[in-house]
Design goal:
Blueprint lengths: L3 H7 L16 H12 L5 E6 L4 H12 L2 E7 L9 H6 L4 E3 L2 H8 L5 E4 L6 H10 L3 E4 L7 H13 L5 E3 L7 H11 L6 E8 L27 H5 L25 H10 L1 H6 L7 E8 L9 E8 L8 E7 L36 E6 L3 E4 L7 E3 L1 H7 L13 H9 L9 H20 L3 E4 L4 E2 L3 H6 L16
Parallel strand pairs: 1-2, 1-4, 2-3, 4-5, 5-6, 7-10
Antiparallel strand pairs: 7-11, 8-9, 8-14, 9-10, 11-12, 12-13, 14-15
Helix pairs in contact: 6-7, 7-14, 10-14
Length: 475
């Protein structure tokens, strides 16, 4: 069995070359898990790390499946207003502020873990969970840095009995099955350009871009474990400009509009067109660029080479309220998927141009939205001409949450495991690097090295982890 002591003793700092060493076998734990599942009315014993805001929504969705027993709740701000609803909903679940203590004390009682915490904290929680042999459901963008995603994929490969799922929920909805069916039928082929757009307001819009230092420190809220909230990130004084979802704004903690929304807009394009990693990333336009938080508007180009018989492809990403792409003739109206999940308790507001994508191929143009929204062929005349040639699209057998739990039982396979989502997470991290540095990046897809900028190459790994967190950075 892997214990925290064994984890910290056997794991070490990962250096160049992404070396792999042993931190223990999970096969025995997985066998125990299967036995418990068979004796627990088919329900998975689930521990939930992050129980407020988006984490709360995740837990409720798992409960709706009827396939989960919530046995543990973990949050660094346990007892705060935004955590009380879930605490009241599951009064018998054991409570923790530190996920490491949770694994120490409840390792044998937990079969799966949901991770609904800020982006910078996904990596340590997932790495320890996998080392314990626990199945992992984590919100996108999976890892914050290129290197974190790399190590998470390696850990998933090392522990093949561990089920992983990244929370891009549309990957279990209609868009996933339609894109797959249309690609296999040859409707989607010879794609050369994709335009992705997310033009809704972001939390940092309106902030002072002449910023020259991080926010002044404030008193840490009573009862909050700020040190554990930071995890491996170098110490920052507490500020409400980081907490309650505001972490999304900062390079040190979040992934900006690209990391937040790219997973819901580009997931099927990336998987079914076999994009892998780009060879070039260009920050075409950055409005309000600064060293601390994300630009007010960004246009970023990702260039992908020929893959087999598929031609080279460019993706251009647009974010910012007024930074909207040119729309093709016959585009029509832009609809908002009503199933988009809540974030921090709020619903997405519809706008003139809602989050989505335009896919240009040799013969056809496709218009798509976000999450589970399906594609349509434009203009309408072309859609009518193609209608009789479109294949039947199967319906999903399970939503994203049920898919994960059924996979834990061995009844399904997850649709967005680490090996599928990991390279897309790395695409986003490369885009964020281009945003932060405001320079073009040339990338070797085979060696996974930045070839034109030594500083950017060092950024693939991010800053060294804080003392006490180094041991998580080796598989």
């Amino acid at each position: 069995m892997v214990t925290r002591r064994n984890f910290l003793k056997k794991a070490g700092i990962a250096t160049a070359g992404l070396a792999i060493s042993s931190i223990g076998s999970v096969s025995a734990l997985s066998e125990e898990s299967l036995k418990r599942v068979n004796g627990a009315n088919g329900k998975i014993n689930l521990a939930c790390v992050g129980i407020g805001y988006r984490g709360s929504d995740i837990i409720k969705e798992f409960e709706k499946t009827g396939l989960a027993n919530v046995v543990a709740l973990c949050d660094v701000d346990m007892g705060a207003k935004h955590t009380q609803e879930i605490m009241g909903k599951f009064p018998k679940a054991k409570r923790f502020k530190d996920f490491r203590e949770m694994f120490d004390k409840m390792g044998n009682e937990i079969e799966a873990v949901s991770v609904g915490t800020p982006d910078h904290s996904h990596f340590p929680i997932c790495m320890m969970a996998m080392a314990y042999g626990k199945h992992v459901y984590v919100e996108k963008p999976m890892g914050r840095t290129f290197y974190e995603a790399e190590l998470m994929m390696q850990a998933a490969k090392k522990y093949p009995n561990v089920v992983t799922q990244v929370g891009n929920q549309g990957h279990s909805e209609a868009n996933y099955f339609q894109f797959k069916a249309w690609k296999e039928a040859g409707i989607i082929k010879d794609v050369t350009e994709v335009v992705a757009h997310m033009n809704s307001p972001r939390r940092w819009h309106g902030w002072d871009t002449n910023i020259y230092k991080l926010p002044e420190g404030q008193p840490i809220p009573q009862g909050m474990d700020w040190n554990t909230w930071l995890m491996a990130i170098p110490y920052h004084d507490y500020s409400d400009k980081y907490h309650y979802g505001n972490w999304r704004c900062w390079y040190d903690f979040g992934m900006g509009a690209l990391g937040d929304w790219g997973a819901h807009i580009l997931d099927t394009v990336h998987e079914f067109l076999d994009l892998g990693l780009p060879y070039e990333i260009n920050p075409v336009m950055l409005e309000g660029h600064n060293d601390y938080f994300f630009p007010m508007s960004s246009t970023i180009q990702f260039r992908f080479p020929r893959r087999g018989d598929m031609p080279p492809l460019d993706i251009t990403w647009y974010d910012g309220v007024n930074n909207q792409p040119k729309l093709p003739n016959g585009y029509g109206t832009s609809e908002l998927d009503p199933n988009i999940p809540t974030v921090a308790g709020g619903k997405m507001e519809a706008r003139k141009l809602n989050p989505g994508k335009i896919i240009y191929s040799k013969d056809l143009i496709f218009k798509g939205g976000s999450h589970g929204s399906t594609l349509s062929i434009i203009p309408e005349e072309k859609a009518k001409e193609m209608a009789s040639r479109l294949p039947e699209v199967p319906e999903s057998t399970s939503n994203h949450f049920a898919n994960f739990l059924l996979a834990c039982q061995g009844k399904e396979k997850t649709r967005s495991p680490f090996e599928v989502f990991g390279p897309l997470s790395q695409v986003f991290s490369l885009g964020v690097m281009a945003q932060r540095l405001n320079v073009p990046i040339k990338f070797d897809r085979n060696t996974k090295v930045v070839t034109n900028n030594a500083f950017a190459n060092d950024m693939l790994a991010g800053v060294p982890p804080r003392k006490g967190w180094e041991d998580f950075y080796k598989v």
